[in-house]
Write a structure and sequence with these properties.
Layout: E1 2-3, E2 9-11, E3 23-30, H1 37-56, E4 63-70, H2 75-87, E5 92-95, H3 99-112, E6 115-118, E7 133-135, H4 140-154, E8 159-165, H5 168-183, E9 187-194, H6 202-211, E10 215-219, H7 222-234, E11 240-243, H8 250-256, E12 264-267, H9 277-290, H10 296-315, H11 322-327, E13 332-334, E14 337-339, E15 352-357, E16 360-363, H12 364-387
Parallel strand pairs: 3-4, 3-5, 5-6, 6-7, 8-9, 8-10, 10-11, 11-12
Antiparallel strand pairs: 1-2, 2-4, 12-15, 13-14, 15-16
Helix pairs in contact: 1-10, 2-3, 4-5, 7-8
């Protein structure tokens, strides 16, 4: 492993004496520094672990090489690096961690007629954008709809304020949330948008509090969401806060601290405590190497690399037809569940609602079901005691 002064990480694991036509280069163009590094770094870790596991398989017919480069959270630089990656012989590239990066990079994938697969970009604008673009992360159309329905139908929230950043990611998810929430009879008191530049959000937070909504929906990336949650709680806002999977970063949740407790967010199901061997195939080595459990983004990076490995088995290493091999994947099981893609390049996953409890993300429905079972068990024991005359 080697990191240059330019922030480029290169990993090449090649067995001595392997046949040249069996060697396949995979690229990864990720934000390892800058604002989006909070997502790019865990993605990198997940990609590396999956790559090493593929290489270690004695039955795997291909020798793989992996090159990872840093976009520095700059979509324009990501586009340039992607072009260079294809020119250097990469069969497929993992990239487009953020929506902004993915939208810039898709055009380059089209120019080269080669696969670009995103571990985490989620804007509805990316759906069906190219036959060469795929993503293992569910679209915001599902995430926003899930939260809109949950807020109104499960929690019976009637009046919300939406606080959203003026960027492609936030626009996509908040529009879907708004439409779904209003469809069920909810009222959006106000949509407050703020520019895509760093700044003080205290004035906007004060505006939310003065409107006295039943809940607020925050649509932005993690650093802005953290600032808004802290600001709301500091002003004494004790009602419900909803947000997106962008907040599902352990470091950010820890940074926000107690103010994050009770915050609801949507994300693809991923339970690090699961005994599922596909989950533990990531969790165990990740914990051993990094001394922590993998987050949602590490899991999706891991699965993205495994999907490319599976596509090689499905369709070989012919560049012009590799997209067909991706499309041919059916019910492939990874750490984040079963993966297969529709004709528009979207993965068939359905987000779930999680709530922050003591700094940890807890599956809301699973928690409700556990409480229900506990109550039923207590009721059953009480009935047995009464029947026995005790």
């Amino acid at each position: 492993m080697m990191r240059t002064k330019l922030g480029v990480l290169v990993i090449v694991l090649a067995a001595f004496g392997c046949e040249q036509d069996k060697t396949v280069k995979i690229g990864a163009v990720l934000p390892l520094t800058g604002e989006a590094a909070i997502y790019g770094e865990p993605v990198r870790k997940g990609v590396e672990l999956a790559f090493e596991q593929l290489q270690a398989r004695e039955d795997y017919p291909y020798e793989l090489s992996l090159e990872i480069v840093d976009t520095e959270s700059d979509p324009e630089k990501g586009k340039e690096l992607l072009d260079q990656m294809y020119e250097s012989g990469a069969l497929a590239v993992i990239g487009g961690v953020t929506t902004a990066e993915a939208l810039e990079m898709v055009a380059i994938a089209d120019e080269h007629n080669q696969v670009l697969i995103s571990p985490s970009a989620s804007s509805p604008q990316l759906t069906g954008i190219s036959k060469y673009f795929y993503r293992v992360f569910p679209s915001d159309s599902r995430e926003g709809a899930t939260m809109g329905m949950f807020a109104n139908q499960k929690l019976e929230i009637k009046r919300v304020v939406i606080l959203a950043k003026e960027d492609l990611y936030a626009k996509g998810v908040q529009e879907v949330f708004k439409a779904e929430f209003e469809q069920f009879g909810g009222e959006v008191l106000e949509l407050i948008e703020f520019p895509s530049v760093p700044g003080d959000l205290s004035g906007l937070v004060e505006r939310v509090v003065t409107l006295k909504p039943d809940a607020v929906y925050l649509a932005a990336y993690a650093s802005d969401v953290a600032q808004m949650i802290t600001g709301l709680r500091d002003l004494g806002y004790t009602d419900t806060i909803f947000t997106t999977s962008a907040f599902a970063a352990p470091d950010i949740i820890e940074q926000v601290g107690k103010a994050a407790n009770g915050v609801y967010l949507t994300q693809a199901a991923f339970d690090t405590d699961s005994e599922d061997p596909h989950v533990q195939a990531l969790v165990t080595p990740y914990r051993e190497r990094y001394g922590a459990v993998p987050d949602l983004y590490a899991a999706h990076g891991y699965d993205t690399m495994l999907v490319l490995g599976q596509a090689l088995l499905e369709g070989g290493s012919i560049k012009t037809d590799f997209w067909k091999a991706i499309r041919a994947i059916r019910e492939f099981v990874g750490a984040t569940g079963t993966i297969q893609f529709d004709e528009r390049g979207d993965v068939q996953k359905f987000p779930r609602v999680y709530v922050v409890m003591n700094g940890t993300l807890v599956d809301y429905e699973a928690r409700v079901e556990a409480r229900r079972r506990k109550l039923l068990d207590e009721l059953r024991k009480l009935q047995q005691k009464q029947q026995s005359g005790g």
